[in-house]
Amino acid sequence: MTHSVLSYETLVHAMAGATGSVVGMAVFYPLDILRSRLQVDEADKLRGSSLDLLVQLANNEGIMSLYRGLAPVLQSLSVSNFVYFYSFHTLRSFTLKGNSAMQDLMFGMLAGSINVLVTSPLWVVNTRMKLEKNNYTSLVEGLGDVFKKEGLQGLWSGTVPSLLLVSNPAIQFMVYEALKRKLMSAGYFDNYAAFLVGAIAKATATILTYPLQLIQSRLHAGTSVKPLFRDMKSKPTTMFRGLEAKLLQTVMTAALMFVIYEKLVRLV
User: d(Cα 260, Cα 266) in Å, to the nearest integer?
Assistant: First the structure.
């Protein structure tokens, strides 16, 4: 009976996390498009603030260019976050004592590793669709084309930095759960607190791991990282190219995701 209850609770967490992430991404997706372009190969062409660049892209390529590849991204994100939340809460259910920050960090890294190994091919195709490198009509078509041309190596390109980047969601969940426990013990945890804590947690994780995210994006896109390392020698800030757009997109997306996640978990 206890096992079935834990399985049900884990499934609820996974569904809530997947739903929250999809809603958050759908709302702030144009910033993700901008981030992808700045990270890969268009930093020299795009100058100005994030808002200015979004207006520039809309004027030059049409408003729909800001939502290019949205459907496959939402499909991949729902799968990815379901796997992550399910793995994370399954691992936490095995602990006999109360959870700690270090336990959350360890479980977050294990859940992130499982997620990367399962869903990496989906993100390879998504990155290429957002950059309009290939005119795939669906994820399935993209997966088949990459496999045909590049084999398994192409589908799992960027997996090594992605595995290193499991520290990003691990740090995010560690900070989020630690702050949540403190606020709940003080009786102050509500929707506004969930939004603020989610934003702080994601901002912390993003800033600490951003250079690895930049390398990951270039590998997913099939772009060489050699020019990036060359530019870094003369201008170290190159490793933080696109950080503003990344922070705006991921922080707001994560904050909204955690609000929806908490509301759905409490509701169910």
Answer: 10
> What pTM did the predictor assign?
0.76
Q: Mean pLDDT of all residues in the chain?
A: 83
Among candidates 228, 268, 208, 263, which has minimal Cα distance to 39?
Answer: 228
Give the sign of the dihedral formed by CA 211, CA 68, CA 46, CA 202: negative
Residue 189, Cβ density class (10 Å: 0-12 exposed, 13-18 middle, ≥19 buried) = middle
Q: Residue 239 carries which DSSP code?
A: G
b vs e for 218-227, b when ≥16 Cβ sit within 10 Å of the residue's Cβ?
Answer: bbbbbbebee
5-8: long-range contacts at Cβ-Cβ below 8 A with a sequence spacing of 24 or more? Answer: 6/93
Q: What 3-state DSSP class applies to 192?
A: helix
In this structure, how many other beta carbons lie within 10 angstroms of the beta carbon of residue 50?
20
Q: Express each pLDDT in 230-266 by its tens digit.
A: 767 777 776 777 777 778 888 989 999 999 999 998 8
Assigned token pair, 17 = 């996390």
Please tell me the distance from the alpha carbon of residue 259 to that of residue 255, in angstroms, as a whole number: 6
Q: How many residues does the chain have?
A: 268
